[in-house]
Design brief:
69% of the residues lie in helices and 0% in strands. It is mainly α. It has one domain.
Length: 156
């Protein structure tokens, strides 16, 4: 293994964890303050869900409301950062990546398969492409750190 390979293996997961945490943490303000942007996104999703007979799914107290999603993003960020910067807690990094992958998979699904769409309120797809970046980053962390996952990692 070359020196470059060692550096990539050492620093790439840190850079990716920082990227995911940045994206999630900067969005918390919008979710936890019920900003107009958040209300538009989750309102659109709730209207879509209502057309399928599931009204209230994406608005408080629905199980996929913006407070729940924001809390999951906060927990994922905390796990990623703790796993990155607290050596004794390094096993938390892939757990945080797994949670991030789950949360962001939902976001990507709703962008692609609901009236929300890729472009939201004229953002030229920025939210969607950031979600795709988070998804790829979380997957790379999971692949690189799979040996640290409980159960799965034991046999790797």
């Amino acid at each position: 293994m070359t020196d470059t390979d060692n550096k990539l293996k050492k620093y790439l997961p840190t850079a990716l964890a920082l990227f995911i945490s940045f994206v999630f943490i900067q969005s918390l303000f919008y979710k936890f303050t019920s900003s107009p942007e958040t209300l538009h996104i989750f309102g659109t999703l709730d209207q879509w869900a209502a057309s399928l007979g599931f009204a209230g799914l994406f608005l408080p107290p629905g199980i996929f409301n913006y407070y729940v999603v924001g809390t999951a993003e906060l927990i994922a960020s905390a796990l990623l950062l703790l796993g990155t910067f607290a050596p004794k807690l390094h096993r938390l990094q892939p757990v945080g990546a797994l949670l991030a992958l789950g949360v962001i998979s939902g976001a990507i699904f709703f962008h692609l398969f609901t009236p929300l769409g890729i472009e939201v309120q004229g953002d030229s797809g920025t939210l969607f492409f950031m979600a795709c970046g988070v998804w790829v980053s979380a997957l790379i962390i999971l692949i690189m750190r799979r040996h640290l996952l409980p159960i799965v990692g034991r046999n790797a």
